[in-house]
Design brief:
The chain is an alpha/beta fold and 713 residues long. It is built from 21 helices and 25 strands.
Length: 713
Amino acid sequence: MNQETLKRAKELVSQMTIEEKCGQMLHHAQEIDRLGIPKYCWWNEALHGVARAGDATVFPQAIGLGATFDEDLVRSVADITSTEGRAKYNEFVKHGDRDIYKGLTYWAPNVNIFRDPRWGRGHETYGEDPYLTGQLGMAYVKGLQGDDLDNPKSAACAKHFAVHSGPEAERHHFDAKVSEQDLYDTYLYAFKRLVKDAKVEAVMGAYNRVNGEPACGSKKLLKDILRDDWGFEGHVVSDCWAIRDFHENHKVTECEVESAALAVNNGCDLNCGCVYEKLIFAYKAGLVTEETIDEAVIRLMEIRLRLGTLPERGSKYDDIPYEVVECKEHKELANEAAKRSFVLLKNDGLLPLKKDTIKTIGVIGPNSNSRLALVGNYEGISSEYITVLEGIQRYVGDDVRVFHADGTHLWKDRMHVLSEARDDFAEAMAVAEHSDVVVLCMGLDSSIEGEEGDAGNEFGSGDKKGLKLPGLQQELVEKITAIGKPVVLLVLAGSAMDLSWADENVNAIMHCWYPGARGGKAVAEVLFGEDSPAGKLPLTFYKSDADLPDFTDYSMDNRTYRYYKGTPLYPFGYGLSYSKFEYSNASIDKNQGAIGDKFTVKATVRNIGKYYGHETVQLYVKDVEASTRVPNFSLRRIANIALLPGEEKEISFELNARDFAIIDEKGKCIVEPGEFKVYVGGQQPDPRSEELTGRKCDEYTVELIGETTEVEY
């Protein structure tokens, strides 16, 4: 923390009255004219582009960015997001607009673990793996904030701290009960990386309780772990109206005054909501000291100074012009990110489509011409939307006739209220019969998959009841496939779906997530082979919801690839390409070493196919002789490389003690002596991945010698 800036923040706070100090701790902080402090709204969103503040480049939803497995790409997306955010902020301030969503404190990224595919907000995350979430979360933070933390371009926020992943309908009163092992092994890891390594400015608490304590007023989470153990110097913000839940739903306090005191005393500096309007009464009742309030307000003023939101101190970003918003380069990166996010799950050779051999193409499904299915939630407005239908139409031009039918509503049984059920089935079947190839566009959108309060649907508060395609979609898929034309199934959804029937019956399946405002352009370019799909699954696709534990059970037993005991439909880390990649010259520099030694793993990756493509090299570690429950194996390194046909590159990974560490029952991070397995390849080292890809990971045995050692978490 810059000492000069800190000193100035303390000077400003020392001149405030207690009422003014309390007023600065609300998300809608009021101006203090006599001190030259303008009003400021802390609430701003930038999950995958600047959100809710007018036009901006709308990138693929976070889960799609997770599927890229590419830290550099994710950092570039965040860098562009903050550049556009600065450009818009500069104009807003010039015109006197300091409203909600107009500031520079972005409440992103969401680094919760997507532990259960039914969770409606999972598409805001980077998936189910702590390591991948940490790496991509750090990349996003660094892109938003920039390299100069004394003069950040914007302020990022790691949310929702912690142990938060549904159910949405119960989040305001739910108590997430979690063991110390799962807490540190799974739920805290990414937050630690963002705090310690990426220097994220803010942390947002969650709505729920964690082992009895409301997360936004948890002594263990906010004081013991975040401040004391991790040395966090930034500010903590509550989720919106979460502190009100203390007395209304969690019943840990009696009233707003007590709730405000509990939150502030345990380190929550900023209230998204209105409970801190009662903070002055908590102070007068002796429930919170002025010194504690000062600590919070100093942190808030310190980052406002560094961001340049006070007239006394400008920013080196004040001259970023409005013209950068949705400029050509930014739109091109959004298109590239979308193409890199698509995961090819099955391909019998139908893809890529060849334009010169097709006279007619049928585009069918509720997501075929849907703008909503492009953008996910927490999204901005785009000056242009390109749906899948529009993307295909633009790509083929007048050379190919494109037929279209929605076929069915996304989740209702009819398109029009006065019609009979299946009112668009006949047209969809006619389209298929008159087409050389059919592109089915199924899935979800943010109206039924998302946050409680935002998504209202038959499934309940944004969560899914199960993994099947909603409404009549599955029936339509089966009827169209039965016609006998070649079928490509595109799934636009932010989570894992049950695609078991499709896996056995359609020619090709590609999961497109929510690909961004112009995502249809990217879809068309990949369908027709202009680019190869490059994504890998950031979460496990199960065969059915019968494979899932109870949604409210926060134990990681039988959850995610790390602990799942069954055989998935499509594994974490899996994804096909139009090209083929060969691994050779794989090696590890030694098979035995002391605890604390470093190990170097190398491999050469060659593109032996006909298409330019990206390959994600994945390294996993398994503790074979652990003294406690450990994952099946854990992702420890990733590298995303681009290769032309015939081109090869050598990848080198260095492993240290932390990569061999496990979390014991007490939550301690330890390295035990004994045997370990190290795997390197383009997938995880499970039998199902081998079956789907026809290739195995390279495998090495490592023996660590010494005494059990506790290492940095």
